[in-house]
Design a protein that fits this description.
40% of the residues lie in helices and 12% in strands. It is α/β, with parallel strands linked by helices. It folds into two domains: 24-53 and 313-456, Aspartate Aminotransferase, domain 1; 61-311, Type I PLP-dependent aspartate aminotransferase-like (Major domain) (Aspartate Aminotransferase, domain 2), CATH 3.40.640.10. A five-stranded mixed sheet has the order 2-8-7-6-5, sandwiched between helices. It is globular. Bound molecules: pyridoxal-5'-phosphate (PLP). Pyridoxal-5'-phosphate binds next to helix 4 and helix 5.
Length: 457
């Protein structure tokens, strides 16, 4: 490492994709058509799209070249073996089952091990994970450390599992817990990492209770980078070495290659247990495809294999984590309330703190997200009362927090794009008192954040 502070993107641009500039009037019209729901916008009307980091990253030259090696044989394609080797290089599980994305791996796994009466602990379930657990009649329980629930608590590993709570939970539910999950990084908790020490402790508790441990590994490389940076004794290790130690503590994993696979689609399910693998493969054939392609084209398998080699490169990870922190640090310095420390893949604005005059049931996160789009063409995602405030009986309650997530697609935007985001967010924050809340004029009975329509109050 040298002493320069400027973040140098560890790539130069080889092929460009235009983004379209729009005026405030055009964006007002787009918002009217969309019912003030940013999910309803045409993406072509968005200048900087920070809705999600899932499948939205840029592939490298070598990934595009790898697509040309794609072999579309139905069974036993060479591309399958390239994929298998790349996965097992980092995660040496005996069985690897390719799926079209992460939730397909979850659906298959929980269909086999879930069911009524079962309970599954996790540091924090991602929403599709929770939904797939609950769809089988099982219960999903989040046991992250208390700091992980406090937006302003500073802790280097806010994604850690609460070991005491896990131990007590496994004792209280003996016989009903088919698996313990740990999500790295903890996406729903703000992209916060889990330490190696915590993973060792989780493993020890699982061993004591005879329960297997699985990883939700979507952001494994970002998590490994945080371990290298922040955990005592880890600074001199290579990222693949840290990843292999993480894998060695688990009995299996689910994965979305749309995150740290650096691909636009794909995922996998992996495990050591032969019987479980057989049951999962049988379901795979029913819903995804033959076990050597699992719902993916041969070319996708090649792109993921190459992505896995690139995502553990230190120049990439240094740039990735520094550029997320760059956005967060600048907004923090400007006095914008945020979740801290900054996670790996996103910065979360605390809309409830910024807009105290808008009560949670008038959706401060929605108000802020709409304002960022209206003023600057930036699309973030409300993670608050719109997303979590609707109870199954149809009544409403404030969500745990009212946040706006600015998720950063991998290798997609430059530092000047981020400087623009900083300028727009700071501008909107300075005029926060002028923002008004919203009411929902039309909503479906569940998952309303995707399709609800909003009216300004
Ligand atoms: C994205 C994600 C998933 C689901 O993966 P998809 O590819 O979107 O189906 C599961 N867990 C975590 C932590 C995720 O971030």
């Amino acid at each position: 490492m040298n002493h320069w502070k400027t973040i140098v993107e560890p790539f130069r641009i080889h092929s460009v994709e235009p983004v379209r500039m729009t005026t405030v009037d055009e964006r007002d019209a787009a918002l009217r058509t969309a019912g003030n729901n940013l999910f309803n916008l045409h993406a072509a009307d968005v200048l900087i799209d920070l809705l999600t980091d899932s499948g939205t990253g840029a592939m490298s030259r070598d990934q595009w070249a790898a697509l040309q090696h794609g072999d579309e044989s139905y069974a036993g394609s060479p591309s399958w073996f390239v994929f298998l080797q790349a996965v097992q290089e980092l995660f040496p599980f005996r069985h690897v089952i390719p799926t079209h994305q992460g939730r397909a791996a979850e659906k298959i796994l929980f269909s086999v091990i879930g069911g009524p009466g079962k309970v599954i602990p996790n540091n924090t379930h991602f929403d599709t994970t929770r939904a797939n657990v609950e769809a089988t009649g099982a219960q999903a329980v989040d046991l992250v450390i208390p700091e992980g629930r406090d937006p302003s608590a500073l802790h280097p590993f806010k994604g850690n599992m609460d070991i005491g709570a896990l131990d007590a939970f496994l004792a209280a539910h003996a016989g009903s817990v088919p698996v313990v999950f740990v999500t790295i990084t903890n996406n729903s908790g703000g992209g916060q990492p889990v330490s190696l020490a915590n993973l060792h402790e989780v493993r020890a508790v699982c061993d004591r209770h005879g329960v297997p441990l699985f990883l939700d590994g979507c952001r494994f490389a970002e998590n490994a980078w945080f371990i290298k940076l922040r955990e005592p004794g880890q600074a001199d290790r290579s990222i693949p070495d840290i990843v292999r130690e993480i894998a060695s503590l688990a009995d299996g994993m689910t994965m979305s290659a749309k995150k740290d696979g650096l691909a636009n689609i794909g995922g996998w399910l992996a495990m050591n247990d032969d019987g479980l693998a057989e049951a999962c493969r049988n379901l795979l054939i029913l819903t995804e495809g033959f076990p050597t392609y699992g719902g993916l084209a041969g070319r996708d398998l090649e792109a993921i294999a190459q992505g896995l080699r690139e995502v553990v490169a230190e120049d990439y990870l240094r740039y990735r984590i520094r550029s997320t922190a760059y956005l967060g640090e600048a907004l923090h310095a400007a006095g914008v309330p945020l979740v801290r420390p900054f996670g790996g893949h996103a910065v979360y604005l605390d809309a409830r703190a910024l807009l105290p005059h808008i009560p949670p049931l008038q959706y401060p996160g929605q108000a802020l997200a709409v304002a960022l789009y209206r003023e600057g063409g930036i699309r973030g995602c409300e993670i608050g009362t719109v997303m979590f405030g609707l109870r199954p009986d149809g009544t409403e309650t404030p969500g745990p927090m009212d946040l706006v997530r600015l998720a950063i697609p991998r290798r997609t935007y430059t530092q000047s794009h981020m400087d623009y985001v900083i300028e727009v967010v700071t501008y909107v924050a300075a005029r926060a008192a002028d923002l008004r809340g919203y009411r929902i004029s039309q909503a479906p009975p569940a998952l309303r954040h995707f399709t609800a329509r909003f009216e300004s109050l």
